[in-house]
Request: fold
Amino acid sequence: MNQPNQPNQPMFIVAPPQKKRRRWLRFFAGLAVMVIILLVVVYFVATSPAFIKSVVLPRVGDALHANVTVSDISVNPFKQIALRDLTVQVQGQAPLLVVPEASIRYHLWDILGGNIHVDEIVLNSPAVELVQNPDGSSNLDPLLKALPAKPANAGSPKPKSSKASQIDLGKLTLRNASLVEIRIYGSGRSNVTALTNLDVTLANLKNGQSAALELSAALRLDENPPGGTNGFLAAAIRGKFNFALTPDLKPASASGQAQLSVSTAGGAFAGFSTLAAGLDC
Reply:
């Protein structure tokens, strides 16, 4: 028996919701992967020695009005920086700072949170040389000019926060350092004050804790002023101390000894040739 003809019914095709969700999920997953890849690329570029030496250090040098260079540098922004042959030099002047090797291990997230948390700082054979020219200028002047000037109309200083900074320094090691100041008068005359063979070890510097400090160095004075009496002196310095800080970083106690003994002296310093001094606290 024939069925009566049925009127044509409109047909609607609805895409399953799951397919739309999957498309959005794929889109966001792909976007997340691209962002991660971009961050990884930026991380490796920004921490690469070539980028730091060609982009970062020149900008630092411009800010300091000096040339800042290194021969090699390794950076992990979250925990460590190591470098070789750091030099800070004003054009036309003697190098102000030379550091053959330096490294620092730290905790970035703690530092960003206000806690200066550093495991170790090591400086091998750093040399600082301050040179004053006959006209009174020095190789430190451009760096001092780079410091921000205090506004002339600055009001009363803001009250300091009552909360002390949190410091956690595991160890600071300074090996074979030298600090030299040279004053040039001209005509071959100059004064030299030098602290060489300087070794310093500072351990366990923390709020409310006891720290230890050891140091040794050689002191040399060589004066040759125009129209004055020449003089020279050489001495050795050695010391060892323990000291404690309060939770707000104020001195609490100190104990230890230090000695200074002159090995040779002459000219204007001849009267110190047998000097030996000590500090016992």
User: Anything to note?
Assistant: The first strand starts at residue 67 and ends at 69. Residues 48 and 74 are 7 Å apart (CA to CA). DSSP finds four helices and twelve strands in the chain.
